[in-house]
Amino acid sequence: MLASDTLSQLYAAATAETGLLSQEQVRATLAEGLAGRFDDQRVLVLIPDHTRTMPLPLLFRLLVDVLQSTRQLDFMVALGTHLPLNDESLLHLVGLSAEERETTYRHIGLFNHVWDDDDALQQVGTLSREQVQNLAGEIWHPSLGGDVPVRISRRALDYDHLLIVGPTFPHEVVGFSGGAKYLFPGISGPEMINVTHWMGALQTILHTIGIERTPMRAMIHAAARLVPVPMTLVALVVEDDGVAGLFVGPHEAAFHAAARLSSERHIVWLDRPFERVLSHAPPMYDELWTAAKAMYKLEPGVADGGELTVYAPHLRSVSVVHGKHIFRIGYHVRDYFLKQWEQFADVPLGVLAHSTHLKGSGVFEDGVERPRIRVTLASQISREDCETLNLGYADPATIDPAEWQGREDEGVVYIPKAGEHLYRVRSEGR
After folding, report:
1. Which of 84, 185, 198, 411 has CB atoms 3.0–4.6 Å from 275's, for a disulfide?
2. Domain boundary among 230, 265, 300
3. pLDDT per residue as tens digits for the range 392-410
4. Rg for the chain (alpha carbons), in Å?
5. Partners of residue 163 on adjacent β-strands
6. Residue in 308, 256, 263, 248 with CA at minimum distance from that of residue 281
7. Residue pair 16/29 in contact by the 8 Å Cβ criterion
8. For 241, left (φ over 0), alpha (ψ -120 to 50), or beta?
9. CA-CA distance, 217 to 231, in Å (whole number)?
10. Three-state SS at 404
11. Average pLDDT over residues 87-102
C-alpha cells in the first residue's frame, strides 16, 4: 500500500490489481502524467538497454505520440558500462524498422551513453568523503576512497528536461533498480559507478537486495540533486513483458511507488532454502557481467553449503570491457579483498564488486576462503577459464533442465528465466 503523501506527489499512476495493464491504460496514464508538461522544451528520454525486460517498442511509440508538443525529443540508452549498441541493435531495442527510422521517426535522436570518454562527460558537483562516509554509515571502509566527482553525460545537460523511463526490479547494488539509477550508473562517469557498486559489495547482497532504502540508493539520490536539469520519472513494474504498474512523477516519489509494487510482484518467498539451484540466465544477458544476475537474485534462497549453477549455454564471454581485470583477480568473497587490500587497490571498485556479488557471501580467515555456497558456471566458457576465475565448471551439454523440475520438495529447483525475480526465505523477516 502506497503512502498518501507519495501518491499525492505523482502526476499519474495506474496499477493492475491482478494481471497487467492494457495498452490503453498505459497510454492514458502516460498522457495524464506527461501530455502538455514539456511544451516547446528539449527533452531527453533515458531508457534501458536490452538487459532489462520491458515493452520498450510500445513505450517508445506511445511516448513519441504523447510528447508531440516538445521542441526536440531524443532518446539515450543509459548503458552504464555496458557495451554500446550498434545502429541495428538500437533500432531493435525501440522496435523500429529501417524505413520507419528514415521517415516517421527521422526527427528523433537515438544515442548511446559514453562512460569512458572524458570529453563526453561533465562534472556537476562533488560528494565529499565526509558525505560518503555519513551515507555509508557502519559499512564505510577506507577502500571507498575520498571525494567523489559527480560526472554525467555532457550531452544530457543540453536539454531542458530529462525523462527517465525504465522498470524497477530487486537489485543487488542499490536494493531496487530504476529511478535515478538511470543517472548513476546509467549516464554517469566511472567514479560514481565504482563507489556505489563497491559500497553495495561492502553491504553484501544478502543485506541489500529487495530493500527499498539503502545507503547506495541514498548516495544516488544525493548525486541526483546536483544535476541542474529537471527530471521526471516514468517508473514501470513489469511482468512477462507487460506492465503491472506505472508511476509518473518526481523521480524519488515515483521510484518509491514502483519499489513497493515490485516488492509485491518480484519477490518469491520460500518456507525453506534450496540445496541445489539451476538458474537459467536468458539470452538477453550476453556476458557473465550481466548473466551474474542469475546468481544475485537466487543467493538469498540457497542454503548454507548449497550449490547454485548459472546455466547459460549461450554465453561465451565474461566481459568485453572488464574481462582483463576479472581474469586477473577471479571471483572471491568480499573479505578476500578487504584483508589483502594492498594487492587489489588498483582494481576498479566496480569490478571488485561484481566479483564478490557473483561469488556470494563468505569468510576469508587464516589465508583460507570459505564461500557460503558453491557457484558453478555452465556455459561456453571453458573449464580452464572457470578454474582461473575460481568458479565451478559444468558442461551445459550434460544438463537437462527437465531433470531439475518438480523437485522442490527435495530442495532442488530449476528457475527458467532467472535474473529479475528475487527469492528469499521467510525466516529472514523481510
Report:
1. 411
2. 265
3. 999 999 999 999 999 999 9
4. 21
5. 45, 232
6. 308
7. no
8. left
9. 17
10. helix
11. 94
C-beta neighbour count of 24 within 10 angstroms: 8
Residues 234 and 328 in one domain: no
Strand partners, 171: 175
What pLDDT band is residue 2 in, cutting at 50, 70 and 90? low
184 and 300 housed in the same domain: no
pLDDT computed for residue 183 by the predictor = 97
Cβ count within 10 A of residue 311? 26
Taken as a whole, the chain contains a residue count of 430
Clarify whether residues 299 and 232 are in a common domain: no
Q: Residue 17 and residue 15: Cα distance in Å, rounded? A: 6
In sequence order, the β-bridge partners of residue 392 are 376
- The whole-angstrom separation of Cα 326 and Cα 389 is 7
Average pLDDT, the chain: 95
CA 83 to chain centre: 14
- List the CATH number of the domain containing 59: 3.40.50.11440
Please tell me whether residues 260 and 278 are part of one structural domain: no
Cα(369)–Cα(391) distance, integer angstroms: 13
**Could you tell me the CATH number of the domain that includes residue 419?**
3.90.226.30
Please give the pLDDT value at position 287.
95
Count structural domains, the chain.
Answer: 2
- Look up residue 373 and give its amino acid: I
Phi, psi of 146 (to 5 degrees): -105, -140
pLDDT band at 81 (very low <50, low <70, confident <90, very high): confident
Last residue of a domain, one of 265, 286, 315: 265
261 and 274 fall within a common domain: no
Cell of 391: 568458479
Same domain membership, residue 342 and residue 255: no
Strand partners, 170: 176
Find the helix or strand (DSSP H, E) in which 344 lies: helix 341-344
pLDDT of 391 over the 60 cut: yes
Give me the residues paired with residue 111 across strands: 76
Same domain, 318 and 175: no
- 308 and 248 fall within a common domain: no
